[in-house]
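Human: For the file, kindly provide a plain-text protein record giving the amino acid sequence and the backbone structure tokens, at your earliest convenience.
Assistant:
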Amino acid sequence: MTPMTPFQPLAWLAHCVLLVLTLALAGCGSLPRNGVPVNLMVDAVIPGLPDVRAPAGRPSPVMERDMARSFAQESAGDFPAMAEGIVLHPHLALSGGGANGAFGAGFLDGWSSTGKRPIFKVVTGVSTGALMAPFAFLGQSRDEALREFYTTTRSHDIFTLGDFLSTVRQLLFGESIADTGPLIRLIERHIDEAFLHEIALAHQSGRRLYIGSVDLDSQRLVIWNMGLIATSGHPDALPLFRRVMLASAAIPIAFSPVFFEVEAGGRRYDEMHVDGGVAAQVFYTGGLFSARELRQKAGRGTTREDIYVIHNGQLAADTATTRRSIPDIARRTFKAAGRAAVVGDLFRIYALALRENSGYHWITIPEGINLAGNETFDPVVMQQLYDIGYEIARAGPPWNILPPGVRGEAGEMVVGAD
């Protein structure tokens, strides 16, 4: 077995019961919605905060202006020029992976221990990566908080499941099979006004934090400018910040979607958002802007990016005989699709790195790591994954510099590829 599949019991219920029952039960009932009309979806904004997000996949003038502003805000202390006069902007992209985020948390801590972990110009995250990203963004001082979360948290600290009858009732008339009240309280405990103030200060110093969630109505990945939310001074800034984190980690069917009140055409509506990993397991800029072009316009041609991707999972195929049962077929199908999605994202980021003349580095949980827990969030297994990540980074990360499966100049296969 490979490292834990995120939310194993939930995935079983979501995949099996969904595939078998909901097709037959479609139309039995649904909860009320006040969704945005299709013709207004592109115009929908958060009331009072129109510039804090943008749909991925196309240039965003709002995000371009904000990134251009970041160059004037940054200090030489955070991003000093190297001997040849080039200023490096390290970018960190954190993937999904559920409890496997323990690997990434340990890796960041181990990287800190080497004294070589940089200050990141941009940090992005989806799913479990979205829960990690604000802490990684604030730097090494938050490593202990990540260690605590990914080595002491149990499943009941994230979600609760009802009995069989309540689960069936939820499938018939609800929107999820688990209650994420514990996760909501966990986010509220860690993300307070003081934390938000630190995010705001980092944003004002020219750094950027982006989290992705998926708007199910438009079926787009929406990228949220979390630092802009933090600096807005809006009375709802803190609850919005928390809700974005929750939305990005809201596994469809297993967890309830998160609703955002939006404004379009002079009226208020709601948007339904779920796990950012539905659209991208990991992302770099989301196609919102070209940092290279913005640097040139700002007269900062001696600056370039170094992109670092931490994949909280494994890319090696989990070879095994598939049982002739709907649960096993569903589970293994979704695992294969998830791996393929990660590979696609790594190639997409690599293509952007080539276009932007950026450095490209990624790391994943090594092959041969066989861990399985007694529950979805098992502290014993997460501690083991944390230690593995820590030791890999401590020893000097064996960064992959080509996408999975691509051979280098000498013909060798990239470390970690299938």
Notes: The chain has 13 helices and eleven strands. The longest helix spans residues 326-356. Confidence is low (pLDDT under 50) at residues 4-27, 410-418. The radius of gyration is 21 Å.
